Structure formats: C-alpha cells, structure tokens
Amino acid sequence: MPKTIKDIDIEGKRVFIRCDFNVPKDDEGNITDDRRIREALPTIRYCLDRDCKIILASHYERPTPGIYEEKYSLKPIKLRLRKLLKLDDEIQIADDVIGPDAKEKAANLKAGEILLLENLRYEAGETTNDEAFAKELAKFADIYINDAFGACHRKHASIYALAQQFAPENRAVGFLMNKEIIFFHKVIENPTRPFVAVVGGSKVSGKLQALINLVEKVDKIIIGGGMAFTFLKANGFEIGNSLVEDDLIKDAKRIMKRAEERDVKVYLPVDLVVADKFSSEATIKYLPIQEIPEDWMGLDIGPATSKLFGEALNDAQTIIWNGPMGVYEIDKFSKGSIEMSHNIAQSHAVTIVGGGDTADVTARAGDIEEMSFVSTGGGASLELIEGKKLPGIAVLLK
Ligand code: AMP
Predict the structure, then answer these.
(1) Centroid of ligand 1 to alpha carbon of 323 (angstroms)
(2) Is any ligand 1 atom within 6 A of the Cβ of residue 323?
(3) Nearest residue CA, atom 2 of ligand 1?
(4) Could you write out the DSSP letters of every residue in 87-108?
(5) Which of 112, 206, 378, 379 does the annotation list as catalytic?
(6) What is the average pLDDT across 283-295?
(7) pLDDT-based confidence at residue 156 (cuts at 50, 70, 90)
C-alpha cells in the first residue's frame, strides 16, 4: 500500500493535489453528478486545516492540446467546489496550466488558499507522460498527493512522471484513493464469503480479463447484460439478433469450465425482455431464453431472472457489481438493472459498485447511499478487478 497523506508531514507546505474532476455534464454544461468533486473534499479539507497552500489539478474530457476551448475549462468545477467547501473566499483558477498566469497565482498563494490549475489536457505533455511538463508542474509544490483514482490506470504526466519528481517522504495518496484501494484490494484478496460477482454490460471482450481473474476468487458469478448472450450461445441456445461475440465463445466455455472445476456457481438469465429493434419504440415480449425469435434481440433480463439472481444473492456476504443487466438507458429495458440495484442494496453484504454505468444505475434506482462503496473510477476499478497494477499506484510504491 502506498503512503497516505496522513503518513507525511504537510503542515504549512505547498501541496499539489491531483484530483479527478472529470464529471458528467448535460448539453447546457450543467454538472449532472458531482460525486467525484464531493469525494475529493476530505483531502482538500485536511490540507486547509493544516494551513497548506493548495494547488488542485485535474483533466477534463479530451480537448485538443494547445487549444483552450471554453467547454473544457474547469471554471464550473471551481464554482461547485467553492459551494461544497462552503468557503467565504474565492477559489482561484489559473487561465493556464503551467503558463505565466498559473505561475504568478501560485507564487502569490497564501496559507489556506486554493488555486485550481486549468484542464491538464490543454497541455500536450499530460497524456504523453512528458517529463519536462511534469518538472514544470513539480515547481508549484513541496508535496504531491494523488487523489485521482479515476485516472490512475493512465500513465499520464500528472499521475506518473510528476510523482517521480518528489521524494518518497513528500508524496502520498489522498483519502479517496486510499478508500478505493483498500476496498478493492481487501475485498478481492480477502473477502468475507460467500463472495458474489455480478457482471453485466455490453461485451465479454471488455471484461474478459476481469472474468478470468474473478472466477479464481468468487463463490458465484451472476452474468447479465449483453455479455450473457455469448455465454448462452456457448451453452447451445439460439439467441436471435442479440449482441454476441462469436470469437469469444471458446473463452466463455473456458470460464464456465474453470468455474465448474472450482465449484463456482454460474448464473445466467433464464428469461429476457426481447425486442424487435434496438429502440425505445420497439415492440417487446417477455420470453424464456429457449424462445428468442430469430430476428429479435434480448435487451434486458426478465422477471424470472431477476428473481433467480435475487435468490442467488441472498446468502452473499460480499458482492461486487460491474455492468448493467440490460440497456438501462431506455426505460423499457431498465427494470432488470434497477431490480438488481435494489437486490444488492437490500442485501446484508459488503457491496461494491464499479463502473460509470453501474454507478449511474445505482443512482437512478436511488440506492447509492445503501451501497457500502461506489467507486469513482470505471476503467481503474475494472483494472483492479482484473488484477492489474495501476501506474498511479505503482509509481508511489517505487
Ligand atoms: P459496459 O460499458 O461494457 O459496462 O456496457 C454498458 C452498456 O451495456 C450500457 O450502455 C448498456 O446499454 C449496454 N447493454 C446492457 N445490456 C445490453 C444488451 N442486452 N444488449 C446490448 N447492450 C446492452
């Protein structure tokens, strides 16, 4: 485990906090979910209470480097942050990342003040892990804190090269990062059993490595969403026009065989909501998996499956969930995912939700507060489940 902010001396120092403020916005530019900003507050408050000069930095979406397009600016983040921190004073924002404005504002920063740098990806060096760029960023601070779990699977300058600019006693993870690592690590390596993985989403390919790793650790695997059809086809079912990855049927078989060897129970849908087209206008039928019509496609799990999956979760002590059970973005096909969210939320297990879509389902279902932990990192949490080492964590252990 990397050092945490509590393990190092930050009192009165200049602290650079890499946050993940890459929050979703609607067409009007309003922030629709500020969880990532709220989750960053404990670390920021901890530094405020210790009279630090605080430099905050984050990426936001994918601007073209060198072009300061307003829609990629962190200004809306600054406003929300100030509101959430309930500060009387303004949070400053620099017009640039390592340019003259950032340098001047950083140099004039007083104890207990916050400066937010502009979108790190305005600079080309961010995504190329450029050392010269990292060295410029490092000049702003004495201490480096990484609290950007959602970006830790990327070997980018503010995550990797920048951490290398600081001595081990001057760098650490923040509270959010620490929470994310502890949850995933402890749960996956040392779960209270029965340990159940609920996996869904569109494709097996995106989660193949996670499935291969999970089958070695869990007691049950529940598979829903589009990826279930590759497994159903592997078991000989006709799946009509449903999403399928024929080239992964052998992998699906291999996973099921390994599950059998380890006595891991695998649960697949027994009925579905099938539709004549991928649309909110589609005609739908509730059918057992044996009866999917040739030209129709399964877009959600059916009521019998929800019940079956619910029962499989009854005795769970640990549940990890990644991937919706159907095309939850369309109302008609959202029931299976909402029901899964309720089932997990109502269980007495330690419950961990990973992945942006899955967190979104949980929020829509009104269950977020009922879960033990909802990860702020989609790709990063998946890589931890896959058993990979995240660059942002590995570099801090060097
Ligand atoms: P992922 O990013 O792999 O977790 O996949 C999430 C996406 O899977 C969501 O956008 C869902 O709409 C989609 N999805 C879930 N079930 C199905 C299905 N049966 N057919 C097609 N897409 C699905």
Answers:
(1) 7
(2) yes
(3) 201
(4) -SSPPEE-SSSSSHHHHHHHHT
(5) 379
(6) 97
(7) very high
Active site annotation includes 36:
yes
Q: How far apart are CA 322 and CA 197, in angstroms?
A: 8
Q: Quick one: which atom of ligand 1 is closest to the CA of 323?
A: 4
> What does pLDDT average to over the chain?
96
Q: Is 378 in the pocket of ligand 1 (CB under 6 A)?
A: no
Answer yes or no: 66 catalytic: no
pLDDT at 189: 85
Q: How far apart are CA 372 and CA 197, in angstroms?
A: 15
Give the residue whose CA is nearest to atom 20 of ligand 1.
226
Q: Output the residue whose Cα is nearest ligand 1's atom 13.
A: 202
- In this prediction, residue 390 carries a pLDDT of 95
Q: Domains (ranges, CATH) in the chain?
A: 5-178 (3.40.50.1260), 191-385 (3.40.50.1260)
Tokens linked to 77: 């983040």
336 lines ligand 1 (CB under 6 A): no
What is the per-residue pLDDT across 259-278, written as a single tens digit (0 to 9) for each?
999 999 999 999 999 999 99
Residue 186's contacts (CB-CB under 8 Å, 6 or more residues apart) are none
Taking the centre of ligand 1 as the mean of its atom positions, its distance from the CA of residue 226, in whole angstroms, is 6
Residue 378 pLDDT: 85
Residue 307: C-alpha distances to residues 269, 298, 311, 339, 343 (Å): 10, 17, 6, 9, 9
Q: Is the pLDDT of residue 87 over 90?
A: no
Active site residue 356: yes
Rounded to an integer, the average pLDDT of 147-170 is 97
Q: Is 5 in the pocket of ligand 1 (CB under 6 A)?
A: no
378-385 and 175-189 helices, crossing angle to 10°: 30
**Sign, Cα dihedral of 148, 150, 152, 158:** negative
